[in-house]
Design a protein that fits this description.
binds pyridoxal-5'-phosphate, 2 domains, eight-stranded mixed β-sheet, globular, Aspartate Aminotransferase, domain 1, 297 residues
């Protein structure tokens, strides 16, 4: 299905895939857009911890009852940036086979991978039709485009089409036709190739600058792909206070703790690196480091 956004797909899942009171397992920390869409549908969320290999699949079971679906961002987990390894992808499929649960695979930005070879998507490994696969052009190209897609198991196509037709009919055809030509003429592939190189270089220089200027304050988690980097605050620093200090020098910091369910979580920042030139990023970090050093003396 062609949709306007991943968000629209997540909302449709709330309507079609689950009933109020069902349980959906989500990565913890995890993507707020997904959690809010599921909560709006009246489901219970089961937070499942994430380690260096992604969501801990053996922790998906919930004492309240069967888990109906699990939402994952396997290529680079939002917000930690870790990649779900192959063994866990297979374990997730095994869980779906055993329980009849659904796997919601949000593969946002998977085209932007810089280290190692891309892993097969869970949907690509699935032989039994348990995976709903989500991709979005809004991040691959630009956010105001509003085009995304959802690959559905066969038995879900009709109910999703019915719900989507009720909601808003279809995505704008003119934008789809233009994007179709853009892809057909090879510009899309060329764009991804060019941007992957650019973002790869920007990620590397962003990390070097962060390690140079900000290492007294944060530990930088290098992601294998994507457009943002998680930075974990060192002990003794308060996330809210760092946001205020940054704001006082004109820098907006997106934070990590709010992305955890259940009150406890690591403090830190989620920094987008793709839109900044290496010089601009280094200058901002220098400014931030100076402001933090005044405060933390
Ligand atoms: C995990 C994740 N999925 C999806 C999206 C957004 O996609 P869309 O704009 O198509 O809703 C984002 C945007 O930041 C995201 O972080």
């Amino acid at each position: 299905m062609i949709l306007t956004s991943s968000q629209q797909a997540l909302n449709l899942m709330g309507t079609v895939l689950v009933d109020p009171g069902d349980i959906i397992a989500v990565e913890n920390p995890g993507y707020h857009g997904a959690k809010l869409a599921f909560l709006a549908a009246g489901v219970f969320l089961k937070p499942v911890a994430v380690d260096v290999d992604g969501i801990i699949v053996s922790d998906i079971e919930d004492s309240r009852g069967p888990v109906h679906a699990v939402y994952v961002t396997p290529s680079h987990q939002y917000p930690t940036g870790v990649t779900l390894n192959l063994a866990r992808r297979l374990a997730l499929l095994d869980w779906a086979q055993r329980t009849g649960g659904w796997i919601i695979e949000d593969d946002y930005d998977s085209e932007y991978r810089y280290d190692g070879r891309p892993l097969a998507s869970i949907q690509g490994l699935d032989r039994a039709g348990h995976v709903l696969y989500l991709g979005t052009f809004n991040k691959m190209l630009f956010p105001s485009l509003r085009l995304a897609y959802l690959v559905l198991p066969k038995q879900l196509v009709r109910p999703f089409v019915a719900a989507r037709t009720l909601l808003d009919g279809q995505s704008p055809l003119i934008a789809q036709a233009v994007l179709h030509e853009f892809i057909r003429e090879g510009h899309f592939t060329a764009h991804i190739r060019r941007m992957r190189q650019l973002y790869h270089a920007r990620r590397n220089s962003f990390i070097s600058a962060a390690e140079k200027h900000l290492s007294p304050y944060v530990e930088v988690a290098v992601p294998a792909g994507g457009l943002s980097i998680a930075c974990y605050l060192r002990d003794g620093l308060d996330e809210g206070r760092t946001v205020e200090i940054a704001k006082s020098v004109g820098i907006e910091l997106s934070t990590l703790r709010r992305l955890y369910l259940g009150g406890q979580g690591r403090q830190g920042w989620l920094l987008g690196f793709a839109a900044l030139s290496p010089d601009a990023a280094a200058r901002a970090m220098q400014k931030l480091s100076y402001a933090l050093s005044n405060e933390c003396k």
